Structures are given as structure tokens and as C-alpha cells.
Amino acid sequence: MHVPDGFINAPVSAVAGVVAAGAVAVSLRGARRELGGERAAPLAGLVAAFIFAVQMLNFPVAAGTSGHLLGGALAAILVGPFTGVLCIAVVLLMQGILFADGGLTALGVNITVMGVVTVVVAYALFRGLTGVLPRTRRSTTAAAFVAALVSVPAAAVAFTAIYAIGGTTDVPIGKVLTAMVGVHVLIGIGEAVITALTVGAVLAVRPDLVHGARGLAAPLKLRVDGELVDAPAAAPAP
Q1: Domains of the chain and any CATH numbers
Q2: Which residues pair with 221 in a beta bridge?
Q3: Contact at 8 Å (CB) between 218 and 207?
Q4: How far is CA 50 from CA 7, 53, 86, 139, in A?
Q5: Are 88 and 119 in contact (CB under 8 A)?
Q6: What would the pLDDT profile of 154-169 be if each residue is shown by its tens digit?
Q7: Nearest CA to 144 among 91, 231, 82, 71?
Q8: The pLDDT of residue 108 is above 80
Q9: Tens digit of pLDDT for each residue in 74-98?
């Protein structure tokens, strides 16, 4: 989904750049509340580095077509939506500079589509699902799966809308929409699997590190006769 230079005309790219810059500015302020201090800041760096590395791994989705993790849903759930936008923006900037993966003149388009849209859609859906599902690790992981699955075709629709306004090729918009959504539904399945596995793994050992699962505490385990059992609940203070 990385948009190259020249694929979207200059005026629309400029407007997308303004939108992306505004989203980053708002996210910088919101991230201070989400991280809650210097101790949580390294986690955002780890999430960005993880997404940067995993995005380099492509998986086949159709004949002659491959996909990779976008990471918006994963970042939003792990470190919060504001910090998630910053993580994806940094990843896209580094990819454009170091690997020419996405044009620098299209950086605003890429951040808007792959950063802002995926984060907003995924986190809104995740919050909605966790609000009605039981507060368990299994349901939280399932909510992460669905949120990631939906966020990818949502980003494809957003790109198609931008292309309809400022696309520089002669491909009909109907064909672009069909191709983008069709392929990215398949990519969304891969994204959902990776997101669910990662969120589930972190929840299993450190649920306190998952922004979207704050308040979901893991029970204290005791080893009794070589087996791990749940510790009895502490009696309430008088």
C-alpha cells in the first residue's frame, strides 16, 4: 500500500501532508498522557522497531501479489492510539528515507492512510468490542483480531478515495476499488493473525503493558507440587 512519488498529484499530496502533520502534532500531545511517564516511553520505541522489522516480511495473498503488516491496529492496542500514530509515522518515514519504500512526496498520503486511518478504525472497533465482551484475555485477543482485520480494507478504501480525487493514472476508480479492497481483505487476515498472536503473547505475561487491556490483571501464580495454580484472592482490608 506504500504510495510512490507521482501516483497522487501535488495538490492532493500537499493536503494529505497537512492532514498527516496535524495528526502527528495532536498525537504528540496525546502520547504524553498515554505513556504516563518516562518508564513507558521505551515501550513505544520497541513497538515501532517491531513493526518496522515485521513490515519487511511479505506473505503471499494472491497470484503475483504479496502483503505485509501495516501495524496500525497493533500499535494502537499496545501503546494507545496517539502513540500508535507516532509509531507508524516514524516507521513510514524511515522506510521512505532508507529503502525508498513509499515516496517522500507521498509521505503525507501514506501516513494518513496507513497510520491515521488504520489506528482510528482499529482502536474504535477494539474499544467497542471490549466494551461489550467479557474482560478476559481471550476476548481481548479476539477483539484485536477483528480490529486489525477491518482496519486494512478500511485503509484501502481511504486510499481509493484519495486516488479518486488526485490520482494521476487512467485506471477507472471502480477497478481500483475492487482490486484494493479485494487484495487487502486477504492482507487483513494476515494482519489480524499477527496482531492477535502478538497481543495475546504480551497479555499472557505482562497485561499491564497493553494499553488497550489496562485493568485486565493476570492472576498471581504459585507453584504447588511442581504445578502452577492461581493464588487465593487477598482478603479485603478492614
Answers
A1: 10-230 (1.10.1760.20)
A2: 230
A3: yes
A4: 28, 5, 14, 24
A5: yes
A6: 999 999 999 999 988 8
A7: 71
A8: yes
A9: 999 999 999 999 999 999 999 989 8
Mapped onto helix, strand or coil, the DSSP state of residue 81 is: helix
What is the average pLDDT across 192-196? 95
For residue 75, count other CB atoms closer than 10 A to its CB.
30
Set of cell numbers at residue 209: 503493558
Instruction: Find the DSSP H helices in the chain.
Output: 10-35, 41-54, 72-79, 81-99, 107-110, 118-132, 137-166, 173-205
**pLDDT tens digits, 12-67:** 999 999 999 999 999 999 988 887 655 567 888 899 999 999 888 877 776 667 77
Q: Cell digits for 146?
A: 477483528
CB neighbour class for 38 (10 Å; exposed up to 12, middle 13-18, buried from 19):
exposed
The C-alpha cell of 114 is what? 496507513
Given a contact cutoff of 8 angstroms between Cβ atoms, the answer to whether 216 and 140 are in contact is: yes
Place of cell 500500500: 1
Residue 213: helix, strand or coil by DSSP? helix
Give the single-character DSSP code of 98.
H
The residue count of the chain comes to 238
DSSP code at position 167: B
Cα 166–Cα 25–Cα 167 angle in degrees, nearest 5? 5
CB environment 208-232: b (16+ within 10 A), e (fewer): ebbbbbeebeeeeeeeeeeeeeeee
